Amino acid sequence: MSRPIDALLQEQRRYPPPAEFAARANVDDPDVYRQADEDFEGFWARWAEELAWFRKWDRVLEWHPPDARWFVGGRLNASVNCVDRHLATPRKNKAAIIWEGEPGETRVVTYQELARQVNRFANVLKALGVRKGDRVTLYLPMIPELPIAMLACARIGAVHSVVFGGFSPTALAQRIADSGSRVLVTCDEYYRRGERIPQKRRADEAVQMAGGIDKVVVVRRTGANVPMTPGRDLWWDELMASADPHCPPEPMDSEDMLFMMYTSGTTGKPKGIVHTTGGYLVGVHATTKWVFDLKEEDTYWCSADIGWITGHSYIVYGPLSNGATTVMYEGSPDWPDKDRLWSMVERYAVNIFYTAPTAIRQFMQWGEAYPRRHDLSSLRLLGSVGEPINPEAWVWYHRVIGGERCPIVDTWWQTETGMILITPLPGITVTKPGSATRPFPGVKAAVLDEQGQPVPPGGGGYLAILRPWPAMLRTIWGDHQRYVDTYWSRWNRQTYYPGDGAKWDEDGYFWVLGRVDDVMNVAGHRLSTMEIESALVEHPAVAEAAVIGATHSIKGQVPVAFVILKSGWEPSEALERELKEKVAQVISPIARPDRVVFTPDLPKTRSGKIMRRLLRDIVHGSALGDVTTLRNPEVAEHLRQAFETAA
Ligand code: WT7
Asked: In this chain, where does the modification N6-acetyllysine occur (predicted)?
């Protein structure tokens, strides 16, 4: 953990906000930090005043660690804030969503049109028997029907659970079952790298596995002929055609659930992270406006998928609550060629662009020629999220994409935090490549040691958040104890433990290193080692498997699997391929191991826990740490040889 960060701390480059940018910035006074710190509840209450409420809150915060209630007694509706309230303003006919399909067709959805679609689908859901508090699973690609369905759920108080459209039927089934959804929204097919992905077929498989689904609403995306189960499956367009375009919004309590979003934990079972209405909306509204310096006339593009929290907060709720124009793209960045994103930036004159380090490293590898084909001069701000950004990638992004004139906001946050917590404010923060800089105003963070003491500047430890923030998760669906244990038990019940290693420097800047637990981050997607191991063990040949995240120049990390075969099976290239395929099928192609190393044994502690740290050392060619606590110390050297022979 110490090697990469030592290099980061030697990073001497400094990027002050360009004068031209600073002169027009939404935040131009560094005193915001002091003001917010003096009265953080007052700070968040001022932001809450920007939203539309049916009833104002009685108290900003009730904090019974680790349980927080924000804007207590307040009533509001997220769809009203993201749609209705813009209709009485000049935003009525402004583009809310500019969408581009992979084959190249476009759709512009104005706020007025969005309102009609959301209201209609809200009525469709009601007619299907969906009531306040019911969960609805959305298994859709990046098409406008996804945000429409999310906002329609929000309108009637249903809880959406968006499952990333690229997940396997097994992963979808698990999430449907855990959430107890009765309604699933999916589509016939969608386009990815020129291929048609059979989404409905995969959804059918999942519905069969999960049970409990009564109705499947199917969006026509490609117009393919897909099997429809009578009485269960219904076409989106047919339902919408007869739906009333007026649906009164449900006045939700601030603390009523808005959505749940599954994320990987250290055990195989994904955690349903629960977000509520008032605090979440205040948090994403504020951070969108200040971190991205959002202006009325901006075209804003976050290239994430809505199937991840980044898309929820910074494609849908944050931008729309600000009345912004948000761009959505269905397909792959290299289709039909590797300049697709830059072609879109040029054609839509995108001003703010937000993506992930894994994408930036991919763009670097493809080379400068692709962005150079296009006029990127509309860009004025760039963002990064998902994992630590290597300073070289940062500098490349700044130079090649940003033309050396755009500030970069490296934003640290999580599914659980709901909103950005550590980030530059682009008009006032001097940035350092590789550092997410400082906590957002009102947020308090630190780097702590095992005992909960702050480490000295330059030191490394655990990232910690020291006070509640409005968009924080409230619980894990169906498992409040796991919420308490996972996030609020490392030091005390008032200190949030994100599970990331970090250092801070003399200026109080944070340098986030990545996960300290057995969760890995592959191309910005969080995967648990356990989930992949479980998938491998499902194969008849596999007795035991251990997976670690190995450093990878493009994806950040990739899974490497160590596998013990059952007797009667022999290692072979064919079997290696089969196992990789197995993981891709059970979880997602994202989780496909980069390598599978066959071994007769695995290093284990006396309590029988696989020592993954040692496997990491072997893969990275580092000196093997202490092996004396192992039950089988001799296995380490064997493994190293096995790994090197396989390489
Ligand atoms: C984990 C959260 C938040 C949306 C994307 C991922 C890592 C995220 C940064 C950053 C260093 C980062 C952390 C965090 N991470 N942003 N700017 N610098 N690391 O959401 O799947 O919940 O993953 O992503 O390790 O804990 P997620």
From this structure: 609
Q: Is the pLDDT of residue 7 over 60?
A: no
At 141, is the secondary structure helix, strand, or coil?
A: coil
Q: Which amino acids bring their CB within 6 angstroms of ligand 1?
A: 263, 309-310, 385-388, 410-415, 436, 498-500, 512, 514-515, 521, 526
Q: Which residues contact 73 (CB under 8 A, 6 or more apart)?
A: 55, 57, 58, 59, 254
Residue 4 confidence class, pLDDT cut points 50, 70, 90: very low
Of 470, 425, 418, residue with least CA distance to 443:
470
Q: For ligand 1, what atom is nearest to the CA of residue 413?
A: 3
Give the three-state DSSP class for 150. Answer: helix
What is the distance in A from the centroid of ligand 1 to the CA of 148? 26
CA of 312 to the centre of ligand 1 (A): 14
Instruction: Please report which confidence band the pLDDT of residue 624 belongs to, taking 50, 70 and 90 as the band edges.
Output: confident
Residue 409 bridge partners (DSSP) = 383
SS3 content of the chain, % helix, strand, coil (to 5): 35, 25, 40
Determine whether the annotation assigns residue 386 to a binding site. Answer: yes
On the question of pLDDT at 261 being above 50, the answer is: yes
Q: Which amino acid is at 237?
A: D
Higher-pLDDT residue of 625 and 274 is 274
- In the reported structure, the alpha carbon of residue 388 is separated from the centroid of ligand 1 by a whole-number distance in angstroms of 8
SS3 label, residue 629: coil
Name the residue of 275, 414, 447 whose CB sits within 8 Å of the most ligand 1 atoms, as the mutation to test its pocket: 414
What letter does residue 303 receive in the DSSP assignment? Answer: -
Check whether 464 has a pLDDT greater than 50.
Answer: yes
3-state secondary structure of 350: coil
- The pLDDT, as a whole number, for residue 478 is 97
Q: Which atom of ligand 1 is nearest to the CA of 410?
A: 17
| Cα end-to-end span (Å), the chain | 24
For residue 572, what are the contacts with CB-CB under 8 A and spacing of at least 6?
A: none
How far does CA 498 lie from the centroid of its chain? 14
Gap between the Cα atoms of 168 and 203, Å rounded = 9
pTM: 0.90
Across the range 460-485, mean pLDDT stands at: 96
Q: What confidence score (pLDDT) does residue 631 get?
A: 75
Tokens matching residue 275 = 């977000």
Q: Please say whether the beta carbons of 311 and 304 come within 8 A.
A: yes
3-state secondary structure of 300: strand
Question: Which residue has the least CA distance to atom 25 on ligand 1?
Answer: 514
Reply yes or no: is the peptide bond before residue 336 cis, omega within 30 of 0. yes
Q: Which amino acid is at 34?
A: R
> Is 57 labeled as ligand-binding?
no
Q: Per the annotation, does 481 bind a ligand?
A: no
